[in-house]
């Protein structure tokens, strides 16, 4: 399916929100099925670990903790696996976005997305280490601003959220600069900052608003099934402490963990789209690629 969406154009804050909604409506079926289709095996492995951990937890009157030290080991492994899964989903979502903006259709498959991810996986690891170093460098000034913002009545939490969004779009743009060959690893952070600097606050506000609206929408959609499951569990299965030691209780805990995992991954995916739109807008303002593309088309038409 052709995607009638202009990635590279000047946008205001309200335009970013509308552009995200428009793009998501055009591609959400293909986007979700492609990304989660590529994540079936990792998600299945995570579900097994969730269930195994649930068997290590007891809620009896005599104990309400892990049965043995292996439970803590498995919990640590689960956290590491969740981080790896999040990075994987974020990475293939980026590759999806790159294919989408290049082809302007959804005719590509998950195999192409995965192939591009594997081809560039070295860049992902290299950037990950460079990003950690960059965050160490900017940690102190960011921490100072965050602490000051925390003491601002009413708007302090929003200011911190916008600050984190600004950092997120900076890191996202830095990686795409490196991934698409505009900059090398050593200069991508400064190049991305120079590109974003004039409108960084505006981009941060736009990203924060988009993510907030999307998060609220997903939560509202999810709350009804959660209420239904809770009512069924309470009325038919019972919600005593002993219930969570039963097989049904373990299953319910596993499903709860998987729901939180899927919800988080869904937010990662939406974040890629939101950041991608802002990145393309900022890149167009900096390099004028849309103008150059129009000139090339005119020149090609005259030949």
Automatic annotation (TrEMBL):
Domain of life per record: Bacteria
Keywords: Membrane, Transmembrane, Transmembrane helix
Transmembrane region(s): 31-53, 73-99, 124-152, 158-178, 205-232, 252-278
Listed name of the protein: ABC transporter permease
Organism: Sphingobacterium athyrii
């Amino acid at each position: 399916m052709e995607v009638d969406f202009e990635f590279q154009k000047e946008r205001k804050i309200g335009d970013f929100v509308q552009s995200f909604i428009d793009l998501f409506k055009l591609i959400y079926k293909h986007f979700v099925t492609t990304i989660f289709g590529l994540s079936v095996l990792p998600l299945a492995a995570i579900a097994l670990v969730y269930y195994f951990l649930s068997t290590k937890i007891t809620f009896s009157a005599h104990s309400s903790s892990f049965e043995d030290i292996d439970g803590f080991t498995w919990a640590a492994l689960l956290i590491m696996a969740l981080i790896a899964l999040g990075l994987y989903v974020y990475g293939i979502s980026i590759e999806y976005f790159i294919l989408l903006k290049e082809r302007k259709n959804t005719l590509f498959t998950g195999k192409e997305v995965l192939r591009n991810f594997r081809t560039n996986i070295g860049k992902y690891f290299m950037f990950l280490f460079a990003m950690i170093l960059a965050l160490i460098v900017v940690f102190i000034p960011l921490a100072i601003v965050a602490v000051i913002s925390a003491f601002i009545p009413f708007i302090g939490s929003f200011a911190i959220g916008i600050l984190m969004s600004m950092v997120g779009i900076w890191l996202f743009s830095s990686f795409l600069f490196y991934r698409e060959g505009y900059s090398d690893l050593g200069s991508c952070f400064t190049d991305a900052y120079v590109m974003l600097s004039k409108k960084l606050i505006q981009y941060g506000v736009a990203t924060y608003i988009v993510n907030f609206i999307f998060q609220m929408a997903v939560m509202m959609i999810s709350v009804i099934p959660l209420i239904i499951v809770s009512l069924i569990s309470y009325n038919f299965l019972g919600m005593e402490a002993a219930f969570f030691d039963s097989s049904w209780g373990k299953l319910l805990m596993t499903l709860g963990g998987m729901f939180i995992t899927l919800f988080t991954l869904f937010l990662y995916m939406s974040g890629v789209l939101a950041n991608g739109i802002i990145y393309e807008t900022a890149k167009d303002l900096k390099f004028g690629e849309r103008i150059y593309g129009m000139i090339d088309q005119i020149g090609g038409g005259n030949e």
